[in-house]
Amino acid sequence: MNKPVEQVTMNDAPESQRTNGRNSLLLKAVLRFPNSGQEREVRVRNLSSGGLMAEAPVQASRGEVVEVNLKNLGWVTGKVAWVAESRFGIAFDCPVDPKAARQNISTGAADENMPHYLRKLNNQAQAPKPPLRRI
């Protein structure tokens, strides 16, 4: 069970309530601390337009400025909002599109340099699936 390292008091003010929907996912990202130049790989557990929750054995403190390199979004700046053992939350400075981080990085056209067996697998993965049958 995770125990909070820092206690955060919550009130009922509108600015303290979450208004952004969070997408649960498992995504690798790079976390950078601009003050020290240190970079670490982290696992993003959920992502919204206003922030994320990540997991990694890092020494971060609440309020510390960080940058996160997210797939399809690039480097996003923010501040550490909370820390609890190996998990922590980051509040972004500017909103992002969380759905963009889930999209595949591709041009949509088949790459001629890609081996035929990989092209075939890509085509199979993108083909519509038939509905499941109840037996």
Keywords:
Thrombin, subunit H, mainly beta, 135 residues, six-stranded antiparallel beta barrel
N-end to C-end Cα span = 40 Å
Radius of gyration: 19 Å
Share of residues in strands: 35-45%
What is the number of beta strands?
A: 6
Helix coverage percent: under 10%
CATH superfamily grouping: predicted glycosyltransferase like domains
Q: Which stretches are low in confidence, meaning pLDDT under 50 for 5 or more residues running?
A: 1-17
Please count the helical segments.
Answer: 1
Shape: elongated
Summarize the structure.
By secondary structure, this protein is mostly beta strands. It has one helix spanning 116-126; strands at 23-33, 38-47, 51-55, 65-70, 74-84, 87-92. The protein has one domain: Thrombin, subunit H (Beta Barrel), CATH 2.40.10.220.
Secondary-structure map with pairings?
Elements: E1 23-33, E2 38-47, E3 51-55, E4 65-70, E5 74-84, E6 87-92, H1 116-126
Describe this structure in words.
The chain has one helix at 116-126, and strands at 23-33, 38-47, 51-55, 65-70, 74-84, 87-92. The protein starts with 22 loop residues before the first strand and ends in a 9-residue tail after the last helix. It has a 6-stranded antiparallel barrel with strand order 1-2-3-6-5-4. It has 135 residues and is mostly beta strands. The radius of gyration is 19 Å and the shape is elongated. A hairpin with a 2-residue loop joins strand 5 and strand 6. The protein contains 1 helix and 6 strands, in the order ββββββα. The protein has a single domain, classed as Beta Barrel (Thrombin, subunit H).
